[in-house]
Structure prediction request, 483 residues.
Amino acid sequence: MFFDSYFFLLLFLPVAIAGYFLLGRLLPHSPANRLFLLLCSLWFYGSHGLPFLLVLFSSAVVNYLLAAAMGKQGRKKGLLLIGLLFHIGLLVLFKYFDFFLGTFNSLTGLHLPLLRLIAPLGLSFFTFQQIAYLVDRFRGEAPLFPPLDYACSLCFFPYIMSGPISLHTEIVPQLRCRKNRFFQWENFSKGLVAFSFGMAKKVLLADTLGQAADWGFTWVEGMNTPTAFLVMLCYTLQLYFDFSGYCDMATGLGLFFNIQLPQNFDSPYRAFSVREFWKRWHMTLTRFFTRYLYIPLGGSRKGRLRTYGNTLLVFLVSGLWHGANWTFVLWGLLHGLAQIVERIFEKPLEKLHPAFRFLGTFAFINLTWVIFRAPDLHTAFTFLGNLFRMDLGVIDINLTAHFDFAELLWLRLSFMPTLERWNLMLCLLFIGFCLFASIQLRNTHERLAAFRPRLSLMACCVLLLFWSVLSFSGVSGFLYVMF
Prediction:
């Protein structure tokens, strides 16, 4: 069950909202509505497989018991160490064991058997959320929440699989707030705006771009420069609208239940540096690494060399967090090195015209997304080689064939199957629109901050939802669910 499915939209969500607020009104002094929300969240997550639910349950129980035991002085460090080893061990077992063992086999010539375990969806997200709570308990910055509130905050279905990485101290007080038990039209209206715009980003834009990007990364050999350039741009925009759409939908779903989720996305392609990009892209992941890894390592307080080393380590871990593949390691390494270079040449770079800084940053982001998307390093280097060999041939018509505008517009245009140049023009216009939207349009939090109920906005939301539902047959899963 995903956000962009008939079952979720037409059955699960109405039942969850109605049951939550009905119990909140009928039993205002009881935690029944939070228990109902927890059961709905477990239903949502368990729909992907009962083994995943068992891993989540085991992880939550162990973490809560350790957090509870931290109330006693003198044992905190040991308990924290046990918790960190447990959670990192889970990540290694499910996500990285086969990667490390496969690398060891290739280096030694051995053929040790791989485990081939399937990682539970959202494992990296709920593991980091629990590590954050354990560290905050160790520091004395978080109280021991009641088990129901802790579990409800951990399993809240809008963010359990793809973030944002929320802190328990952000969510539990909102769940316990008395006025949040009752339905609020303003929050519901804002949530509808965020959810409908996010759905449109995902279904209408990201999935359309993704068809062309998937084709391009499947047929890398022999690709000429213009085709490689457009495929690269398609994936850059696909990832943007896919993740941005998920964040918008998660924000909207949270508002349906009167829960404000932390901002996770802030128009990252507007960035004028790689450092600024990471302040705008997956903001809660950046916050996690800053608070729980970079600062404990010394941050920027212990000299330049130590700062550079800390930065590089954080981004190597960030790359590996995204997946067990050398492409992710290289991607993280490049982003770490880019930030080091920006620190070293900070003053000369600030003197450059903003247009050059923007174009340089955007070009770097695009090129490194190629490595991020490629299934292996050979494919990534082949793609980049095709991009820079300056083979200025015509755009491969197979690329344009993957933009099914007749399906997207729900309209059959008679000239499209016969006149390829019109399809090419529509493709370029569509990519240009997506590029403009990703850089210039306001992010969701800015839009919600300026929210005013208007009939035209309501009509726009209804149209986007209706259009997206008609396009469900061609949707794919969210990209960040894989991480």
